[in-house]
Amino acid sequence: MSSENEETMELEAEHLFLLMKKDYRISRNARAEWYFNHLNHTVQIPKADKVENFKGEIEIVSAIPQETPIEWDWDTSHLYQYVISLSTVVTFLSHTYRLVLCLDLSPSAATVDCVEGVTLLDEILTSFKNCVQGLARPFIVPGSQLLFCPKIYVTVIAHTPFLVSKGQQVLVAGWLLQQDNVNAFVDLVQFKLSSIEVRLSCWTNFVEEQRDAQLADAERIVGGLFETVSDRTTNSSCSTISIATPEVSFISILRYGMLALELLPEKSSAGIIIFTDGVFGTTDAGWSEALLSQLRHNTIACSFVQVGSRTCHPASSEGFLPNNDLMEFVASTTFGTCLSGAPHVDGGYDYQMNVYHQYFLTWGFEKYLLRPTQTVKDTKIWNLSNRCFESSAIHRVKKKVSDYPVNCSLHSVLSCRLREGFTIKEVHLDDDVVEVHLALPWRPSIQVEYSIRGQWPITQGTVRCGISVQGPYDFLHDVTCKKIQSLCSRYRQLVVQSYWALVKNLSETDQLLVHLHSFSSNPAFYTVPEAIKSGVPLFYLPPNESSLVNASSDLSYPHFDAFWKPICVLDIGYWQRWLHCHRIGILLQHDRPLPKHLHLPSTSGRYHSIQCRQAATALNAALRDFTSFVLLENHSYIGLVCTDSEKPVSFYLVRLTHKPPCVILRIAFLGGTAGSIRQKVVADLKNAVQSLNFPQRSLPQDFSKTIAAIPCCKVLQKPAEKILLRYEKMPVDFFQVVPNDPFVGQNNNIQMKRPSASPGTQWSTLSHYLHHRRWIWCIQGSPGLALSLNSVARILSIITKMRLQEGFSFAHSSSGIFTFLLEVDMERQHGQLLPGSTDDESQDQAQNCSCVVQYVLFPPHRTGSFGLKDSEDEATEESDILDSSDAQLEIVTECWVEPQAGIVGDSPDERGFFQGLDYHALAESFHPMDLDCISSLVTFEHLNLMCRQADRVGVTCEQEKSVPSSPGIPGRRDVLSPLTGNGSSYNFTPPSGWDRRTEEALKDDTVSCVPFCFQLPRLLPKCSRAKLLFSTFVQEFKAPIRYIPNPADTVNELLFDLLTRQLSQLGLREVILQEGDCRQLLENLNLQAAADCPHKEEDFPNNSVDADTEVESFATAREANSTPRSPRDINISNPPSRPSLLTPLNISYRSGINSHDDRAESAANKNEPLTPMWRCFVKSVSSSHILLVLLPASFQDLKLLMLNEEHLQMPRSLILPK
Questions:
Q1: What PANTHER family does the database record attribute to this sequence (predicted)?
Q2: Which of 725, 526, 713, 748 has its CA nearest to residue 619?
Q3: How far from chain centre, in Å, is Cα 339?
Q4: Would you call 90 helix, strand, or coil by DSSP?
Q5: Residues 980-1020: pLDDT tens digits?
């Protein structure tokens, strides 16, 4: 064959592989339009050496002919032309994928597979490992020699059925899976699974022990006649452990998977892969249909990898029956795959497309018709002898429902049906007529078919549409029966009603589709009146009404109003059927200054909320200028898309949703709009929003400092509204993080009246998905002495300013509860690759690697012996003190961090302590900062309060003792103990085999109770200092120096006594300092002196104390950008500091020979230097100022501070202590 014949030879293509553009996601409409535009046409493959050379929106990578000539090979395939026929299979590939791998760790997975002889949990891990290793391998596109290595972002979720389990279910999030890091990825998942395994086994053992105890009690003849209240409480404690049923577990897995996909890069193909034994079902058809609709609308392929035998073994199944029909139905209706087992892939140099590439990384219209070939493992299944019991043996009947014309193009109708989940079943071509048959697997064994008949080639004309249904005869009889009420089964009635609702929605969708696509047919629809061009909205919504009213009294454009009114009231939840949807997440900046009653209720008992009026006004003005006209003020805007001609060819709708400060811009384009146009409009709108700034305020003429512009909006990279914590009221119990979910299960330990768990399903999902830490700060030293609410509000105000200076923004506020939000950039760590860390990615995709951090600040509240009480309805002036003897004043802060692989990089100076931290350490990093702030302010407020109330009893050291450690059982009052200190009669009886490991596994480590933190050494470095020098009487010292009293010190000791008496006349009170306080005090003074005068000698040269305390760790954390110590290292039962006793000055200070001798002897035994003791005097100047006076405790401590052996070698004038 000559070269000329090779170039002109046409071959019928059997299989085509297409590559989609990576800059933006290619819609199903664009894929179907490409297919029909090239049907019965010839195409040619461009010659390329690398996959990166393909830059088009959809390009052909390779083709496999049906009849392969002898001369055809991969290196000569570009010389042929290929005809795309009706039998050609078209497969789409993507540059980027996002996959969520869900491991189903249900109790049924702990059984043994009688065919393979292995535990299903072990088989799940093996299947996961084989699948991940197969996906990470690059492969050669069939029909070519192009090595294709897509970017696959993976999140792994381990789903457990224990609803009150505090363990986070996300193992790894946002990992860029590649061949060189797959082993590290598998090792990390195995390491985290081991900790979950220990926790899961302890929970299972605890539930089994409690269930056995209940069964034993139920079998007793007498029953509960002679039981005490305590016995009944103990016996019913197993009801506090809720386990999700297999029906509910499947719904929960899908919800976790969809949430995880929302947080991965959006410009990619999405998929959920569930590793399970198949023992699950569905609770409600309504819930299942809603979730499946979301999967289909968002183009999420749900696939299954089943472990164990596919069929039931009656002798050993123990009631665990795999639901194969449900898995195959879900996979088929979402373009997924159901695999039986996960075969191992050889790691050699043969880079052929394996089974995981074929079923998890490809997309096609015929995919649901292509069942995966059975693996070798399926030869061992237990085969049915009677084929009539197989689901495929059910006889199905087809019935036509309706047939009607639609005045729209075939492309538009096809696009709408594809967005609803339909797939192309078959295509028939005649001379000038094309008929497309679509299919939707609606329920198991029931399929809804939709046919479109129109002209060929496809033109803008009327098409004929028909609806038919195929299913069992009993179902068709029910839906055609005139009297639905005659059905005895309530379930059958719901199925019939749901079916007719589907048929009605299809017809209504077609009607609105015709309305939308008639935009360019009538100039009255796109000719904007002059009054509307000037910025006047077309409609407005009167108060207390739900119907729109024309804003203008001029009714000269009725057609214009009639066209846009249905679009203005269109629900966002249904946009996906007709429109291409995009979103821009925005955080509006708050108005300045902040309200007065931000953390304190007003006289009416209400808190002020955060207002963003200035930013919202600027945003709406920008949207008015960016778009063509306003539909509804502060709500909907319309932009006209024009090409070369002045006539608009399409339009887009911009709608502002959600409540400020966190708002969402929804941009919807008419179906069929080119992807490049959509991408440009969204990018321009995002730039316009980012350029908005607050207006500059007028400054005095002599003010020369330049003030940086303050942006009005902060554009978010991730859909933070999906994981935003929205507290509406105070939680009932701060020690209970995971709420009761009425949909998922019942937990009798939690009362149903809890208002903060609404909606319960979303809250339950977030509490198990996000990484959480909560701190409960006790700010009351004794029951009879409490701070005023104004003082506590000042503490919360300073914490708020700290978060704002660190870059956080207000995201939600209600009832005095504030949620702050911040996105931090992540970078790779330990070989893992993240977006933006590889070659030539675009800037938008590089920004996808971020981690959402949320910080929640609750208002001050009181807790007594009967639980928590909300203080929202109480308004207290500064002089009103909480004198209730059983009330404790607390501050609650918490942090929620999105799981994200990598470490924080490129942190600015204001939050340099984030640098190099992973998402676990991010939550822990707030504790040292808040501890330093709260401790300093609480110490100041208590010193001021005690000085002004001399009759009050001071703080004692007993207030910081925590409750002894005991098993962490749900319903406890403390994180380490059951309800022992609040008057409850709950008694926990550990089951047999209880050990320390079990206790640690059941302990909730997300909530920490921080004791009363009165720490004077933390306050002193933040004070303004002045050093006063006083001369002592001249005294000679000889080596060796003894730091104990001697007769020569009598005169100077008398001088010290006169000094303290003089201080008593000034009305000062003394704070008793312990030895640890003095050690920290001396260390902080030295650090501050060195910072103020780095080249000056130390004020106290003899100090050689090297105490590794948490104060030092945090004091140097910000400046050195080092990681502070984790609060988990602090033993709650032994707090780092002890509160000091505030006493009048006339109480004698016990310092004498015996005390110095004891200290010297103790220091000599421990081989440690003596610690100089200090005396601290305090006086209240005003509500915002106090005076602290520090001086050595005695003359012997002065010698210990100032003298050493080196001083004796110096001139006499330099060794005299002053």
A1: KICSTOR COMPLEX PROTEIN SZT2
A2: 713
A3: 30
A4: strand
A5: 333 333 334 444 444 555 555 555 678 889 988 888 888 88
